[in-house]
Design goal:
Helix content: 25-40%
Number of helices: 9
CATH architecture of the largest domain: 3-Layer(aba) Sandwich
Strand content: 15-25%
Strand order of the largest sheet: 3-2-1-4-5-6-11
Bound molecules: NADP nicotinamide-adenine-dinucleotide phosphate, ligand G4F
Radius of gyration: 23 Å
Number of domains: 2
Shape: globular
Distance between the termini: 87 Å
């Protein structure tokens, strides 16, 4: 029976992937964080009592910020495949906690890769890379596009991407990057824009709220369907050799179109319910901003004045 270890099993992708792997006959080991509230809602329906001799899903406490736990887990489970999906995955939040993002979304990957190397476990490794790494590179983006990351999240993912490539080249680890464009589902986290909008539409329709506050309606995303994307993750690890792959739909829509469609579907006019909150815009540090402007002739005058002063 093949064994898989999944980090981020309680997330959107992790839950769909665990379902898929169980259906394929795998023994699945998932790493979960200790939380004071339940964080296993997305995998409750596939939970199995570990005392049951037929159980094939096992959950282990661990944190990507803790190398020892990761090393023990890999050494004890000795998985055939590792799907590394755990991350602080919210782009906007990564601006608020950049150091933590680097630790978990970036260094967390190195901790796993190095545990694989040191343990000698011959596990195939999947790195959840992201189209966010393309950043300001003009669309359409592909495997040959140079990364121009624009957020702490994207920068941490670029670091992880190169770590996976490095462990492949330097140590022969079967490390594959799946560079996935946005993918959504009913299990999408409720602070990402698709669920935020669809949830608000349902609540407004049910009379439970009146407004929803959104950020940039003009940004465009290539949105796919998460259950299909986890099948691609599995396929990437079944290939003869590790490599890097981009996955998207080739179709892009604006947040405004999403809003129009979702409210329209429920027979609502979005203009009555959507308000813009600048707080939800991505606050880049305006990389093209020029902080000091001094007109050339003024500069000449200033220099002259300074020389005059020194005299
Ligand atoms: P998600 O729903 O936000 O799930 C993230 C998972 O990571 C959760 O299980 C979370 O656990 C876990 N996690 C967060 N911090 C952790 C830590 N310090 N230690 C251990 N686990 C931690 O993300 P997703 O949408 O399923 O995405 C899966 C992966 O693909 C992520 O790496 C994401 O960055 C990447 N990705 C996603 C997309 C997309 O459109 N969905 C596109 C490209 C790449 P809790 O449940 O306890 O919070
Ligand atoms: O749903 P989002 O927060 O997803 P984002 O930032 O594209 O990131 C997701 O996809 C990445 C793949 O490219 C993943 F790597 C990452 O982990 C995550 O899963 O925002 C989508 C768009 C953005 O342009 C954002 O500015 O929607 C815009 N938006 C407008 N109003 C909003 C809102 N986003 C959020 N979260 N909340 C708003 O109110």
């Amino acid at each position: 029976m093949p064994k898989a270890l999944v980090t981020g099993i309680t997330g959107q992708d992790g839950s769909y992937l665990a379902e898929l792997l169980l259906a394929k006959g795998y023994q699945v080991h998932g790493m979960i964080r200790k939380a004071s509230t339940f964080n296993t809602e997305r995998i409750e329906h596939i939970y199995q009592d570990p005392h049951d001799p037929a159980a094939r899903l096992f959950l282990h406490y661990g944190d990507l910020a803790n190398a020892e736990q990761l090393t023990n887990l890999i050494y004890n489970v000795r998985p055939d495949e590792i799907y590394h999906l755990g991350a602080l995955s919210h782009v906007k939040v990564s601006f608020d906690i950049p150091e933590y993002t680097g630790d978990v979304t970036g260094l967390g990957t190195t901790r796993i890769l190095d545990a694989v190397r040191r343990s000698g476990v011959k596990a195939r490794f999947y790195q959840a890379s992201s189209s966010e790494m393309f950043g300001s590179a003009p669309p359409p983006q592909s495997e040959t596009t140079t990364f121009q990351p624009r957020s702490p999240y994207a920068i941490a993912k670029v670091y992880s991407y190169w770590m996976a490539v490095n462990y492949r080249q330097a140590y022969g680890v079967f490390a594959t990057n799946g560079i996935l464009f946005n993918h959504e589902s009913p299990r999408r986290g409720e602070t990402f824009v698709t669920r935020k909008v669809t949830r608000a539409v349902a609540r407004i329709r049910a009379g439970m709220q009146k407004k929803v506050f959104l950020g940039n309606l003009e940004s465009k995303r290539d949105w796919g369907y998460a259950p299909e994307y986890v099948e691609a993750m599995w396929s990437m690890l079944q290939r003869d050799a590790a490599d890097d792959f981009v996955l998207g739909t080739g179709e892009s829509h604006s947040v405004r179109e999403l809003v129009e469609e979702a409210f329209g579907y429920a027979g609502l006019d979005w203009h009555d319910h959507v308000e813009i909150d600048q707080g939800y815009f991505r606050k880049f540090v305006r990389p093209n901003e020029i902080f000091f402007l001094l007109n050339f002739s003024d500069a000449g005058q200033l220099a002259g004045d300074l020389i005059e002063d020194r005299r």
